[in-house]
Design the sequence.
């Protein structure tokens, strides 16, 4: 004889199937932790081409909703590996996908209130959309295509202006000082000294904001560039101002010098982690009422910023300098997410409330047929477990980004130079021969992600 004090299994399943199915779907659409460990291990060992192949082999696992991430990861790993043409192919595809998703974001956002952000195509964080153009610019610079590099760098300003308009100017990441500095270097290498000066000046203003927002001070290289270009252009008022402010005296550069820009990717970038809010209360009839909401938060995988010794030796000439922080990716990522967290909370709370009400309705239906506190308790535990499993924060992240980007700049005479990059403790990071040509720019990228 059936005990009427306990819910029938089919009935319970019918009331919890929504949450169980959703939880299984969400688990199936996420890349495994083991996969990321393999990629991280390859990157830490400087096997970037191997890491790119690993991502390619698992393309199907990313799925349609994470196609942007697949292209971002592939593009950056190939950039690290020095395959700039193929890297551009992936970055351009990711940018196209991001642009398409941006135009659809309003209508897509409605559906996520009912289901979960993990079931939506990943559009990318604002800073991730900007960094696509940064790496495209660096790819083109490495390929000697300065015009194309400048086109990509200029896109950054357009994007950031649009995002600032969207946030009504309340966001911090309104400009990218590092990209503007790179633009100045590119303009100067292309013979556009006036445009270079304007970019350097804008970058300097940007770093003033960076100092307050991200604790990133203006690199000394930029200060020297401002003094030099102001002097070259004969801008006496600006030259006097910057000489006094920076304590740098203008000295005309010899005409036979070339520029070596070393860009160093240091450390592992931040990843998103889930923060779950869970509140449970039991009533007098044994039913447990639980509200669950999950939101993402950036987690730093590195709590220090390294600098590097950069040297160049050749043709009887020896020069050395120390790298300086150009872009704190970790700080920008965290600040950007923190500033839109209120919107995430509102969206998450609305979605979680709908699930909570559905779960409560399931418990109510079971309670109608059962008068046992134990049955109510067991039913509510099962329903809440399924509800909890279905509530997942969207922690998709461009994981291969560096923690920060360092820069070093040397002006050298013509010839072949052995360029070395060593970490603070003297450990070699890179050594290669670089040809310097007068009046031209040589860009070297160095990856030290461990």
Sequence:
């Amino acid at each position: 004889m059936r005990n009427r004090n306990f819910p029938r299994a089919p009935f319970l399943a019918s009331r919890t199937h929504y949450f169980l199915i959703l939880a299984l779907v969400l688990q199936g659409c996420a890349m495994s932790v083991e996969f990321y460990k393999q990629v991280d291990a390859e990157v830490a060992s400087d096997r970037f081409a191997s890491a790119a192949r690993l991502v390619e082999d698992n393309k199907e696992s990313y799925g349609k909703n994470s196609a942007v991430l697949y292209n971002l990861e592939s593009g950056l790993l190939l950039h690290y590996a020095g395959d700039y043409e193929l890297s551009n192919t992936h970055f351009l595809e990711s940018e196209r996908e991001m642009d398409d998703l941006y135009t659809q974001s309003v209508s897509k956002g409605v559906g996520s209130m009912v289901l979960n952000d993990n079931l939506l195509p990943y559009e990318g964080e604002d800073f991730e959309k900007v960094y696509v153009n940064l790496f495209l610019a660096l790819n083109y610079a490495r390929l000697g295509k300065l015009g194309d590099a400048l086109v990509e760098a200029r896109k950054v300003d357009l994007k950031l202006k649009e995002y600032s308009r969207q946030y009504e100017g309340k966001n911090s990441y309104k400009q990218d000082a590092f990209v503007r500095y790179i633009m100045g270097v590119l303009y100067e290498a292309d013979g556009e000294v006036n445009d270079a000066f304007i970019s350097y000046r804008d970058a300097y203003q940007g770093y003033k904001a960076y100092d307050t927002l991200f604790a990133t001070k203006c690199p000394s290289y930029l200060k020297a560039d401002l003094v030099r270009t102001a002097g070259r252009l004969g801008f006496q008022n600006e030259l006097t101002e910057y000489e006094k402010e920076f304590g740098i005296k203008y000295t005309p550069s010899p005409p036979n010098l070339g520029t070596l820009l070393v860009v160093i990717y240091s450390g592992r970038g931040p990843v998103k982690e889930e923060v779950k809010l869970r509140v449970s209360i039991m009533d007098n009839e044994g039913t447990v009422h639980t509200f669950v909401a999950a939101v993402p938060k950036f987690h730093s995988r590195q709590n220090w910023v390294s600098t590097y010794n950069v040297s160049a030796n050749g043709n009887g000439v020896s020069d050395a300098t120390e790298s300086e922080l150009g872009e704190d990716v970790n700080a920008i990522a965290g600040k950007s997410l923190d500033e839109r967290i209120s919107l995430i909370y509102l969206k998450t709370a609305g979605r979680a409330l709908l699930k909570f009400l559905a779960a409560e309705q399931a418990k109510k239906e079971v309670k109608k047929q059962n008068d046992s506190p134990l049955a109510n308790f067991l039913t509510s535990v099962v329903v809440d477990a399924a509800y909890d499993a279905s509530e997942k924060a969207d922690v998709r992240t461009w994981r291969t980004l560096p923690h920060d980007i360092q820069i070093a700049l040397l002006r050298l005479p013509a010839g072949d130079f052995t360029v070395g990059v060593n970490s603070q403790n003297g450990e070699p990071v890179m050594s290669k021969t670089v040809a310097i040509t007068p009046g031209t720019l040589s860009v070297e990228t160095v990856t030290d992600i461990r």
